[in-house]
């Protein structure tokens, strides 16, 4: 029997967080593949449309929102840990993840909303919208420098070991290096690559970190 059941859609960044966390802990996940254009199954299970949704097969507890799912996984299967053992470091890791979710995602989300899900045509933007895209792109690229600095002398965002900061950030930052894979038409991922792109020459430590985390097991 699987340790947990998780609803997913293809190429979902937030689902990949759960796959990385479960892989780290050696958990068996029963994946429920959902048609991105037909969310009835997710809605019936959780009362909302977004994935990931995790279900505890024993208790039937349903958890939505990837940060909550990750916290639940850590509580239920504490070893190997995703959070640093030192309480102060663990608190800082939480601050990082909160900021990543609440602040870092802002610019690419705003750019994707302006460009629209299909058209992706910057030519039809007003001057003010185009300036907003430029500003948000600069913000995103500016923050890349901070990740590069953070990785000076350490292999992972939380410190020496792989942990919750890597799980939280990798599924998004990877698009800066790699670009969306074939079949991934999500405009948000395209924005991450076009406006937050980097390579081994511009950001060697960040690029090496993407390659390193890509080797991690995923459930
Ligand atoms: N805060 C939620 C966001 C979940 C979310 O936005 N999921 C995306 C996939 S990564 C989704 O289901 N989007 C709806 C859609 O693509 O139609 C989390 O972290 O799990």
UniProtKB/TrEMBL annotation:
It comes from the Bacteria. Residues 2-81 form the GST N-terminal domain. PROSITE patterns: GST_CTER, GST_NTER. Residues 86-219 form the GST C-terminal domain. InterPro entries: Glutathione-S-Trfase_C-like, Glutathione-S-Trfase_C_sf, Glutathione_S-Trfase, Glutathione_S-Trfase_N, GST_C, GST_Omega/HSP26, Thioredoxin-like_sf. One of its GO terms (cellular component) is cytoplasm. This is Glutathione S-transferase. It comes from Patulibacter medicamentivorans. The lineage of its organism: Bacteria, Bacillati, Actinomycetota, Thermoleophilia, Solirubrobacterales.
């Amino acid at each position: 029997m699987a340790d947990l059941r998780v609803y997913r859609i293809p190429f979902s960044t937030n689902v990949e967080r759960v796959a990385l966390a479960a892989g780290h802990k050696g958990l068996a996940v029963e994946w429920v593949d959902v048609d991105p254009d037909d969310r009835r199954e997710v809605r019936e299970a959780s009362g909302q449309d977004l994935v990931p949704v995790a279900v505890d097969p024993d208790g039937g507890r349903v958890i939505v929102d990837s940060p909550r799912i990750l916290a639940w996984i850590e509580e239920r299967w504490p070893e190997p840990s995703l959070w640093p053992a030192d309480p102060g470091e663990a608190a800082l890791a939480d601050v990082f993840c909160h900021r990543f979710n609440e602040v870092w995602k802002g610019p690419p989300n705003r750019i994707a909303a302006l460009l629209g899900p299909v058209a992706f045509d910057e030519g039809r933007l007003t001057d003010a919208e185009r300036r907003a895209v430029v500003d948000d792109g600069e913000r995103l690229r500016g923050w890349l420098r901070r990740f590069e600095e953070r990785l000076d002398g350490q292999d992972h965002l939380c410190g020496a070991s792989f942990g919750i900061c890597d799980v939280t950030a990798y599924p998004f930052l990877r698009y800066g290096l790699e670009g969306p894979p074939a079949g991934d038409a999500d405009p948000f991922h395209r924005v991450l690559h076009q406006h937050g792109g980097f390579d081994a020459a511009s950001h060697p430590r960040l690029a090496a970190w993407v390659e390193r985390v890509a080797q991690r097991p995923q459930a």
